[in-house]
Give the backbone structure.
Amino acid sequence: MSIAAGKLRHRIQIQAHQYIGQDPMTGEEQRGWVMVRECWASIEPLSARDLIAAQAAQSKATARITIRYADDIDASMRIRHVRRGKEVIYEIDGVLEDPVSGLEYLTLICAKGVSIDGA
């Protein structure tokens, strides 16, 4: 089963927390969020029923983000989505491959509104 292109209507950035340099004064290693990939995605907020079924903490706003398959994405990364000038950052809680071939698409279970400073 392939994913219809029309469903992928949100432009997102997938970012990884990586080494970005060294502080010239202290020599301390500096880390930051670096874009790994930019792609089209489907972003669906999970319903209250989905949250209860997953026994998720109600303090997290959770979403299901679907993208075309990529083998370089893991749960240590985050998603940056800008919509109408407002930035939303999602923490990736889990990465699920499609159940048929495992190579068509990925479903990213994500949360927003939680601390994900990368520390």
Observations:
- The chain has one domain: 7-112.
- The CA atoms of residues 12 and 81 lie 5 Å apart.
